[in-house]
Amino acid sequence: MRALGHTRGGSRRRWLWNGIGAGVIVVAVVLILLLARGGTSSSTTPPNATPFPTTTPTVQNLLAAAANPSGSAVDGIQCQTNEQVVYHIHAHLAVYVNGQQRVLPEGIGITQPRVEVTTDEGPYVDHGGCFYWMHTHTNDGIIHIESPTQTVYTLGQFFDIWGQPLTSSQVGPATGSVIVYVNGQEHTGDPRAIQMTPHELIQLDVGTDFPPQPFTFPAGY
C-alpha cells in the first residue's frame, strides 16, 4: 500500500511539473507574438529605405475612347478590310495631362465590329470591320502605320482618324498649354505637322511640362 501511494504521489507531482512547463511555453509564445505584432505596427522607416518617387506618373483613364468612324477615307487615308504591309512602321505617342499619364485607347482606326482579346500585356484589338492605314491595336501608345505605299503621314492625320482635336492648346478632350517632345527634344512647331517616322517617340504634355519619357518597342517592331 505504501508503494502504491508513493507511485500515485509521484505521478501527481510529475503531472504538476509538466503542467507548469506547458504553461511557461504558452506564455512565452504569447509574448513573442505580442512583440512581433508590436514590431510590425511601428511606423519607423528603416534608414536605408528608398521612398517611392513622387514624380512617377500614374496611368489614368483613357484620354478619349476610340471612335467608330464610318470607314470613309480620312485625309486621303483609306480603311480597308485587310491590313496593308507594303509600308509597315511603328511610332509611339504618350500623353501627359498635368503630369499624369493618360492611356491611348486600343482600336483607334479600326471600325466595328471589333474583336478584342485579352493578353498578358492588356487588351488587343485583333479584327475589325476595316483598318485605316494608321491605327492602334493596343493601349500602350504604339501607332501602326500600315500603308500600300511608302508615304510620310502626320500626327494630325492620326488624330483626324481618331476623331479628336489636336492643337497647341488641346489634345483630345484635355485642354491647356501643350508642350511637345519628339525623340526627347522639344518641338516648337505645329503638333499636327509632326511626321510619323519609324520608332518616332512623340510626347504631348498638356498643362504641365513633364520630362520626356523613354519607351522601348517590343522585339520585331
Q: What is the helical fraction, as a range of percent?
A: 10-25%
Rounded mean pLDDT is: 80
**Overall number of structural domains:** 2
Radius of gyration: 32 Å
Shape: globular
Order of helices and strands: HEEEEEEEEEEHEEEEEEE
- Separation of termini? 96 Å
Task: Please summarize the sheet with the most strands.
Answer: 8 strands, mixed
Number of helices: 2
Structural class: alpha+beta
| Low-pLDDT regions | 1-18, 24-58
* Tally of DSSP β-strands: 17
Query: What percent of residues are in strands?
Result: 25-35%
Note down, in words, how this protein is organized.
The protein has 221 residues and is an alpha+beta fold. It folds into 2 domains: 1-43; 60-206, no CATH class. The protein has 2 helices and 17 strands. It has helices at 2-40, 155-162, and strands at 60-62, 79-80, 87-97, 100-103, 115-119, 122-127, 131-132, 134-135, 142-147, 153-154, 166-167, 170-171, 174-175, 178-182, 185-187, 195-196, 201-206. Strands 1, 3, 4, 8, 9, 14, 15 and 17 form an 8-stranded mixed beta sheet that branches. A hairpin with a 2-residue loop joins strand 14 (178-182) and strand 15. The chain is globular. Mean pLDDT is 80; it is low at 1-18 and 24-58.
Gist?
This protein has 221 residues and is an alpha+beta fold.
Give keywords.
221 residues, alpha+beta, eight-stranded mixed beta sheet, three-stranded antiparallel beta sheet, 2 helices, 17 strands, globular, disordered N terminus
